Amino acid sequence: MSLLTGLLALILVIILAFVLYKVVKSVTGLIINAVVGVILLWLINLLDLMQLVGRPDIPINIITVLICAIGGIFGVLVTVVLHLLGIPLTL
């Protein structure tokens, strides 16, 4: 019975390590995507890219930062499109 218990414990540890690896890997990707989104929002305002199409800078507030952090690059695109359409992202 001791050998069987040890074998089951080893299998459980291997499964747990695999699941933990997958979780950490996906969280790392989400963090990188969030940072890239917020940096892109900041760069758009820093380089005055919205001035090229005759619009003021995108306001950096809690809503735009959350959209860019959660959505990443796609969130920045959504924010830019909404800003170009004149839809305010404010409270």
Automatic annotation (TrEMBL):
Membrane in keyword set: yes
Keyword Transmembrane: yes
Pfam family, one: BofA
Taxonomic lineage: Archaea, Methanobacteriati, Methanobacteriota, Stenosarchaea group, Methanomicrobia
Name the UniProt record assigns to this protein: SigmaK-factor processing regulatory BofA
Alphabetical keyword list: Membrane, Transmembrane, Transmembrane helix
Organism: Methanoculleus sediminis
Transmembrane segments: 27-47, 59-85
Domain of life where this protein originates: Archaea
